[in-house]
Amino acid sequence: MRIVLKLAMGTALAITAFYAWHCATKKQSTHQGPPSAKDFSMNKTTLTLLGLKYPFTLAPLPYDYKALEPHIDEATMRIHHTKHHQAYIDNANKALEEVAELQKYTIEELLTNLPSLPESVRERLRNHAGGHFNHTIFWQMMVPNAQPLPTEKVAHAINEAFGSFDAFKELFNKAAQSRFGSGWAWLCINKEKKLVVTSTANQDTPLAAGLFPILGLDVWEHAYYLKYQNKRMDYITAWWAVINWPFVEKLFTDGLKAVE
Ligand SMILES: [Fe+2]
């Protein structure tokens, strides 16, 4: 009888101990899971051009692949859009699949809050969400049969900021030509609502520096190498003939309201 009682007490103690361990483990695993969205300290941003959210998709070009010939060739446009841009989209989506709490944010919110993103996806979103953002606006910044000079409002702002259109062009060309390795040259609106020329490395965006981009030039080799090989300056010179100045003016108007 005594043995039976001892066995029963032992079993009860074992069950109690197992239950306590199970509860403690469950509690611990809840606390060790992925951080909740509020832990990311994501700030709202007024620098919104696109407002795109996960899942990102590749929009068709607003013109034919050969429409920018002879300045930018059909093969480059096709590969650039369907392969390079698509790869940025796929990789950005993959990163966001891993941290579902980030899927509700716009691409601008992600790119202006890079330091708050979890380390596991931060660099991938910087590069690939950045690449998606940059290319999406880049396609719209070009147009076939472009007018050679900026529209009135933009022309006035350029003159005010740089002295003349030619002085601006020289500054922009220098930023594009001197960007070491891969990157972009930009015309942006800063927080003082002034136009500035800048450049970014890789797929970094001006958003991360608090700037609202209104014109950008992709100077990655994939943007020009098939036609221009190592002659980046020839590509830069040719690109001035395909700028969509009315779209630049739209961004300029939006940007003046957006910057703080
Ligand atoms: Fe590109």
Note down, in words, how this protein is organized.
The protein is mainly alpha-helical. It has a domain of 107 residues: minor pseudopilin epsh fold. The protein has nine helices and three strands. The chain has a three-stranded antiparallel beta sheet with strand order 2-1-3, with helices on both faces. A hairpin with a 5-residue loop joins strand 1 and strand 2. The longest helix is centred in the first third of the chain and has 31 residues. It starts with a helix and ends with a helix. Bound molecules: fe (ii) ion. The site of fe (ii) ion has 7 residues, from helix 2.
Secondary-structure map:
Layout: H1 2-32, H2 74-98, H3 107-112, H4 119-140, H5 152-162, H6 165-178, E1 183-189, E2 195-201, E3 212-218, H7 225-228, H8 232-239, H9 245-258
Antiparallel strand pairs: 1-2, 1-3
Fe (ii) ion (FE2) binds at residues 80, 84, 135, 218, 220, 222-223.
Q: Approximately how much helix is present in the residues? A: 40-55%
Number of strands: 3
Q: Count the DSSP helices.
A: 9
Q: Give me the CATH architecture of the domain at 152-258, please.
A: 3-Layer(bab) Sandwich
CATH class of the domain at 152-258: Alpha Beta
Question: Structural class, from helix and strand content?
Answer: mainly alpha
Q: Report the principal-axis shape.
A: globular
CATH-defined topology of the domain at 152-258: minor pseudopilin epsh fold
User: Strand sequence of the main sheet, in spatial order?
Assistant: 2-1-3
Bound molecules: fe (ii) ion
